[in-house]
Write a structure and sequence with these properties.
Shape: globular
Distance between the termini: 67 Å
Strand order of the largest sheet: 2-3-1-4
Order of helices and strands: EHEEHHE
Number of helices: 3
Length: about 150
C-alpha cells in the first residue's frame, strides 16, 4: 500500500453535528410562536436561598447559565430557554421557554414537563451536582424542581 492512498481522506470526514459550537444564539421573539414563564424552585430543598449552595461547592448562577446554553445549542432554535430572574437571596429563579411552533394548549404541560423535568433537570441533577441541594424525598423521587407554568402573551 502506498503512502498516498488516503491523501484525499478529508473529503470523507463527517464531523458530529453537536460538536459545532454555536455562537451564543441571539433570541429573536419574532422567530417563536409561543412563550411560557417558568418559576423554578427546588423540590425538597436543603437550602433556603441560592447563596446556601456555596456550602456544597455549587455556583448556582454559573450552573444555570451552562445548562441553558447547552439546552439552546442542542435544540437548535426549536425551543429557547432564557433566564429572566435570578437573585442569590431568593429560593427560585425564573426562565422563559419559547417554542418555535404552536402547540395545542392541552399538550403544553406535558411537553414542558418532558423537557424541563427530564432533559434540563437531569443536567442540573447529575452534570452540575445539584442532587446535593435536595433531601431524601427529592432524591428518591428523582424530582429536582417544582415548576409553575404561566403562558406569556404580548
Amino acid at each position: 500500500m502506498t503512502e498516498d492512498f488516503f491523501a484525499d481522506y478529508e473529503k470523507f470526514v463527517v464531523p458530529p453535528i453537536y460538536q459545532y459550537k454555536f455562537d451564543k444564539l441571539k433570541f429573536n421573539p419574532k422567530e417563536y410562536a409561543m412563550y411560557y414563564i417558568l418559576t423554578v424552585s427546588l423540590n425538597d430543598a436543603l437550602i433556603t436561598n441560592w447563596d446556601d449552595a456555596t456550602k456544597y461547592n455549587i455556583d448556582v448562577r454559573k450552573s444555570i447559565d451552562h445548562v441553558l446554553e447547552e439546552f439552546n445549542e442542542r435544540k437548535g432554535g426549536k425551543y429557547y430557554l432564557q433566564l429572566l430572574e435570578f437573585d442569590n437571596e431568593k429560593p427560585y429563579f425564573v426562565v422563559a421557554l419559547s417554542f418555535k411552533n404552536k402547540i395545542e394548549k392541552e399538550k403544553i404541560k406535558d411537553i414542558i414537563s418532558k423537557y424541563i423535568e427530564q432533559l434540563v433537570a437531569n443536567s442540573f441533577y447529575i452534570g452540575q451536582n445539584w442532587y446535593w441541594l435536595i433531601g431524601q424525598k427529592g432524591k428518591r423521587d428523582r424530582k429536582l424542581f417544582n415548576i409553575s407554568i404561566k403562558e406569556f402573551t404580548h
